[in-house]
C-alpha cells in the first residue's frame, strides 16, 4: 500500500505565466528557483499569410492541445516521476483559428482570447503535473501554489468591451508596423525641442512600437471601436497583455497595469508614474471615453485567481471539466507579481544592483542596464524604462528602479539567415562549432544591419555588409564574423549606456588602467537561444575585454523566474512572502556560478583594440548605403 502523504508538510511554489511573442508558457517554481513543472504552447499562425521572413522558421509551429510528458519530471528532492499519460485539456480538436495572424505585410495581430486560453491551458498542464507529483508516495512533502506571477510581451495593444469582456478587435502586437504613417506624421508636426520634451517625459522615442500609436490607429480605423469611443459610456477598455490577463484571471476583474508595462504605452510620465494629460492629448485620447488601467507596482496584491469562462468569451474549443476542476485548486490564490518581459529577465537574472546589466540573445537582442533609482535619459538613443518596483521592500529597494534599454534588431536571426538563406549550417546549434574551426575571422567584418543600424548608431540607410573578404575566406570566417557582428553591437550599446551613466568615454578601456574607480559594469548576465553557444559568449567576453565577466544564466527561464520573484515579494507581511527581501532571493536562488557558465576575455589586449577599431571603421562605411529616395 502506498503511504499516504496528506499530512505532509507543504512547500510553497510560485505559478508563473509567461506570454511571449510566439509562444506562451507556465512554469511552477520553488523558492530555490527550481522548475517543478512547465508547459509551453507555440502559437498557431496563419502560415499561408505569414510574412516571408517568418516562413520556415521553427518558431511558427502548430500548437498542440494535448499535454505529453516524454521525459521524467524531477521533484525538488530529485525524485524522478514518470508521467506517461496524455491529458486532454480541450474537448474537441477542431481548429479554433490561429493565435497570430498576418493580415497584410507588416501587420501582426494576436487573438487576445487565444492568448488567455493558452495561458489557462499551460497553467492546467502544470497543475496536472503538480497533482501527479503530490500523489507520489515517496514524496515526504506536498507542493502548494502560494502566489501567481505574470511576465508578458510589452506594448501589444488590446481593446475590449466592459459589458461582454470580449475584445473588439485583434490585438496589435509590438512588432506590427501599421502605425508608421501616424508616427511619421507626428514626427513632422513637432520640432526638436518638443521631441526632447516628450523623450524626457516618457523615456521613449516616437516609434511604431509603443501602444499609443496602436490605440490611435484603432480609434481611426476600426468602426466598432470608434463608435464605442464616441458613445463614451464607459464600455471601452484599453490594456496591454498584462492588463488583459489580470482582468480575466481575477475574481475582482482587477483593471491594472504594472509600471514596467505602462511605461511602454507612451501615455505615462516616468516621474509621476501616472498618465499624463499632455501625452494623452498628444495622441488625441480622451480618458473619459476609454478606460485606462490603474498603474500599479510590479509586486503587490492585484486580485485573487479565478478561472475565466472561455466559452463566454467566444473560445469554442471548450476546456474540459477536468481542466476546470484542477483550476479550482488555485482559485483564490493571489496574483501578486507582474513585469514586462525584458524587465522580468533583468529580475530573473538577479541584476538588482545599480550598474548591473543583462543581455538576452534571442531572435533580436535586448540589453537592459539597471540605473537604480535614478532616471537617466540617454544621449545615445537608448530608451529609459522601468526595471521593476517592489514597494514592499525597505529603503531604496522598495523604490521604482529604472533601466536603460537598447536593442539589436538582428541577433539570432543572423544564424537563421546563415542556415536558411546561405545553407551554411543545418541547425542553429552548428554555428558555434563552425565558427570555432578558425581562430579569428581572418580580417572579415560582418555588419548585420539587415534593416538599418540601431542603437547607438541610428542609421536607417545602413544595410548588411561584409568587409575584408579574400580568396582565403571560408564559411567559418563568415560565421565567426557574423557572431562578432552581434557582439560588437552589444559592446557599442554598453559603452553608450555607461557614458549616459557618467562613465568616461570608453569605460572598458579606461577601467583597465584606473585603480580605484568603481566600474560601471563588471558582469554581463546573459540568456536567450544564442547564449546557449559557448562560442558566442567567449566571443562576447573577448570583445568586452578583461573588465567584464560574461555569465550565462544557469536557469534558462529567466523571464518566468523574474515574474516568480515579483510575485513572491508581493505580500505586505514579510512572513507571507516567499522571500523576505532581495538578499533572501540572492541567497536562496543560487544559479549561474558553474564554471561552464562563466566567460572571461582570453584575447590579448592589442588584438581586441585592433578588432574594435576595424569594426568602427566598417560601421562608418556601411552607413548610408541607401539614399533617401531608395
Ligand atoms: P525568441 O525568444 O526571440 O524567439 P530564443 O531565445 O528562443 O528567441 O532564441 C532563438 C534564437 O537563438 C534563434 O534565432 C537561433 O538562431 C538561436 N539559437 C538557438 N539555439 C542556438 C544554439 N545552440 N547556438 C546558437 N544559437 C542558437
Automatic annotation (TrEMBL):
Q: What is this protein called?
A: glycerol kinase
A biological process (GO) of this protein is:
glycerol-3-phosphate biosynthetic process
Report the source organism.
Answer: Candida verbasci
**Residue span(s) of domain Carbohydrate kinase FGGY N-terminal:** 94-348
Family as reported in the entry's similarity comment: Belongs to the FGGY kinase family.
What InterPro entries has UniProt attached to this entry? ATPase_NBD (IPR043129), Carb_kinase_FGGY_CS (IPR018483), FGGY_C (IPR018485), FGGY_N (IPR018484), Glycerol_kin (IPR005999)
Q: Which residues form the Carbohydrate kinase FGGY C-terminal domain?
A: 357-569
Name the keywords, alphabetized: ATP-binding, Glycerol metabolism, Kinase, Nucleotide-binding, Transferase
Where in the sequence does UniProt note compositional bias of the Polar residues kind?
A: 44-57
Pathway in which the depicted protein is active: Polyol metabolism; glycerol degradation via glycerol kinase pathway; sn-glycerol 3-phosphate from glycerol: step 1/1
Q: What is its EC number?
A: 2.7.1.30
Q: Which GO terms describe its molecular function?
A: ATP binding; glycerol kinase activity
> Sorted alphabetically, which Gene3D superfamilies does this protein's record hold?
3.30.420.40
Q: Where is this region: Disordered?
A: 44-65
Q: Provide the Gene Ontology terms for cellular component.
A: mitochondrion
